[in-house]
Design goal:
The protein has a domain of about 350 residues: MFS general substrate transporter like domains (Growth Hormone, Chain: A). The longest helix has about 40 residues. The protein is about 75% helix and about 0% strand. The protein has about 550 residues and is an all-alpha fold.
């Protein structure tokens, strides 16, 4: 049996190599996100996707993170931390190649899934390793580590903008940027020695780790996973949400009975709060380009720079988190962050204009900076007995709900706004183009953008006209509906056709502002929730981290 390596056995150089290799690994995930963020509009246009479908591709890069985060949290004590990171590298590299070769929605969707699976392994490893290597400074170090996310997003976006400026590449080539930082961290990890996590170092039993999660959080995770995997693997029934509640609830009950624990109520609350956290931080970013485009219209500013600016603010503030955390506890800082985000988003969406746009955007950017790392720090400091499982479960819940709920929900809000606005301006067009969407078992009306595909379009330059491509694989009813829609558009006079297309463009722009206002409700929830949590700790003498002794006691 190989010798157990503890964090105390590592030299300062060993710790730095591990930390910065982990930084690069998370930056690689951010680079992949930057591709989907900046090029979603282009591949959406090429394949005539709805806003909801573009959101689903983005979401597909997030919900798989939950699967590998939870799975590897249960396995890393046996596999060690090093080998899973090479699996993560392979998945991230494959995701770039798959997106490069994609010819349809499905290709992009499965490329995003590979990226998410790799990202999940990265998070499953780097979070507990960081907490183990820096046990006295968890929140600060985890915050600095998660500066890698905005570094990867901003760096990837700038690389894409720079390459487009020099060579005007198609979006496919930009899918390969993720391979560079992924290869770099794989090489950087080769000489590294990985220690066991804090729970194992302290001798806390494996069963005690499972008890921290217990029935409550296991049920939440199971319901979400069953719902998602049913859709992915095609066995979802008409009442799949209800079925997921029953199946997931049963799994949660069995888990609770097996470990004889309900779980920690406050930890369960943190898992629930990760839905508005993920929506406020990641889901809004996923749509920020179409949301910011009407805001910046007329200023001759590429909307991608809004993301670069936001990520740069986040990067700087996270790197210098030590100074901020001297004045605020994690719950207090989270409540303040929610307030800033809510004000910034509402202002951007409702009335911001001119210089006020940038003031509002700074508020939004500052507000979202500390969400994720502060919740990770809180979990690591208050539930160290949970080891990698509690640390990664809370993060997985955010990413899972973001992919299942947050990003698609904003996409639905976008589609509904477009439908509502066009219904009053172009009622005849909407009557022809109207189709039905489904989200978590509820139906909504939306406008099918496929109706706008022209007879002579070949947007992806593959010598097959777009209409022919969109007819491929459709059932008879769908094929007939598409042909009817195109025949209706072809029958319009030139001025009517131009008017309809301009109205659609205008209303999709306005929908960006509408969704910003809609999204402001999520950080508003966080203000109330974390404010109550901060007051709870204050009533009990103040917030204090829990430390494990060598015997496993806290």
């Amino acid at each position: 049996m190989s010798q157990v390596v503890k964090a105390s056995d590592l030299t300062e150089q060993d710790k730095k190599m591990l930390f910065w290799g982990s930084f690069l690994a998370l930056a690689a995930a951010g680079t992949g996100f930057a591709f989907r963020l900046t090029k979603g509009g282009e591949y959406g246009s090429d394949f005539a996707l709805t806003f909801q479908e573009v959101g689903q591709i983005m979401g597909a890069s997030f919900w798989p993170i939950a699967v590998t985060m939870i799975l590897f949290s249960l396995l890393v004590d046996r596999t060690g931390y090093k080998r899973p990171m090479y699996v993560a590298f392979a998945l991230q590299a494959v995701s770039g190649v798959m997106a490069f070769t994609a010819t349809s929605y499905e290709g992009l969707y499965y490329a995003a899934i590979c990226a998410g699976l790799g990202h999940g392994i990265v998070e499953a490893v780097i979070n507990p390793i960081c907490a183990a290597v820096y046990p006295k400074d968890k929140t600060k170090r985890l915050t600095i580590l998660h500066a890698a996310w905005p570094a990867g997003v901003a760096g990837g976006a700038l690389a894409i903008l720079g390459a487009d400026y020099v060579a005007e590449l198609t979006w496919k080539w930009h899918a390969l940027w993720i391979v560079l930082p992924a290869a770099a961290y794989a090489l950087m990890y080769r000489p590294c020695t990985f220690p066991v996590d804090e729970r194992v170092q302290a001798g806390v039993p494996y069963m005690e780790m499972l008890k921290q999660v217990g029935f409550l959080s296991a049920t939440l995770a199971s319901v979400l996973l069953v719902y998602v995997l049913g859709g992915v693997f095609g066995f979802a029934t008409e009442n799949w949400l209800q079925t997921s509640l029953i199946v997931g609830g049963s799994i949660g009950v069995l888990f609770g009975l097996a470990v004889q624990s309900v779980g920690k109520p406050l930890f369960f609350l943190m898992c629930c709060l990760m839905m508005p956290v993920a929506t406020a931080e990641l889901s809004t970013d996923a749509f920020i380009q179409p949301l910011m485009k009407p805001v910046l219209e007329g200023m001759q500013i590429n909307p991608t720079f809004a993301i670069v600016f936001s990520m740069t603010v986040m990067l700087i503030l996270r790197v210098f988190a030590g100074g901020i955390l001297q004045f605020f506890t994690p719950p207090t800082l989270l409540a303040l962050s929610g307030l800033l985000s809510a004000v910034g988003l509402y202002w951007l969406g409702s009335s911001a204009a001119g210089a006020a746009v940038f003031v509002a955007f700074v508020l939004y950017a500052v507000g979202q900076t500390y969400y994720w790392p502060c919740i990770l720090g809180f979990t690591a400091e208050r539930y160290p007995e949970g080891g990698a499982l509690t640390l990664n479960t809370v993060s997985a819940m955010g990413l899972l709900t973001m992919g299942v709920i947050g990003t698609p929900l904003l996409g639905v809000a976008f589609d509904k706004s477009v439908h509502e606005s066009l219904s009053s301006e172009e009622a005849v067009f909407v009557a022809q183009a109207e189709t039905e969407g489904d989200f978590l078992g509820t139906k909504h009306k939306k406008v099918d953008p496929l109706i706008l595909v022209k007879a002579d379009d070949d947007a992806n330059s593959n010598k097959t006209l777009d209409r022919e491509e969109h007819l491929a694989g459709q059932d008879a009813a769908a094929e007939q509906q598409l042909n009817d829609n195109w025949a209706w558009m072809d029958g319009l006079a030139a001025d009517e056709d131009a008017r309809v297309r301009e109205s659609y463009k205008t209303e999709t722009g306005q929908a960006g502002r509408d969704v910003l206002v809609f999204a402001a409700r999520f950080p508003a929830i966080l203000v109330v929730a974390f404010g109550i949590i901060a007051l709870y700790f204050r009533s009990r003498g103040g917030y204090k981290p829990i430390e494990l002794t060598g015997s496993g006691d806290s």
